[in-house]
Design a protein that fits this description.
Blueprint lengths: L7 E9 L3 H9 L4 H4 L1 H4 L7 E4 L10 E4 L5 E4 L1 E5 L7 E9 L5 H25 L1
Antiparallel strand pairs: 1-6, 2-3, 3-4, 5-6
């Protein structure tokens, strides 16, 4: 079944047992992307550019991925502290469903994002 509905998002999140600042710094560093974002580490995607929002105190990691074809994709992402004075944080990626994407493809994309966020969690928790 194909759902051509646009403006559909799925929020994929992962709790991380590490400080907000360290998670944000690691995830915001473009040099670390291939370590945790499997889709961007694929050698078939040579020439892909990723542009992050300016570093900020609010944990905004929104980014634009530009493919070699020139096609661009906006990806909202946040690191959210557990609370004031509390250790831990949640990383949330808002997966946007594009027109023509089937339910199975959208589910597969969400699973890939969840795996990437789990990898990010493991790397940051191991380093801390």
């Amino acid at each position: 079944m194909t759902d051509d509905t646009t403006n559909t998002s799925r929020h994929v999140s992962q709790w991380v047992d590490a400080g907000f600042d360290e998670v944000y710094a690691y995830a915001a560093d473009p040099d670390n992307l291939p370590r945790w974002a499997a889709g961007l580490a694929d050698p078939k995607l040579a020439g892909v550019e990723v542009e992050f929002a300016e570093r900020n105190e609010f944990g905004v990691l929104d980014h634009v991925v530009t493919l070699p074809s020139g096609e661009r994709f906006f990806n909202p992402m946040r690191v959210i502290p557990a609370g004031i004075g509390e250790r831990g944080c949640e990383v949330v990626f808002s997966l946007r469903r594009l027109a023509g994407v089937t339910d199975a493809e959208f589910d597969s994309d969400a699973a890939a994002v969840a795996a990437d966020l789990a990898t990010l969690r493991a790397l940051v928790e191991r380093a801390g």
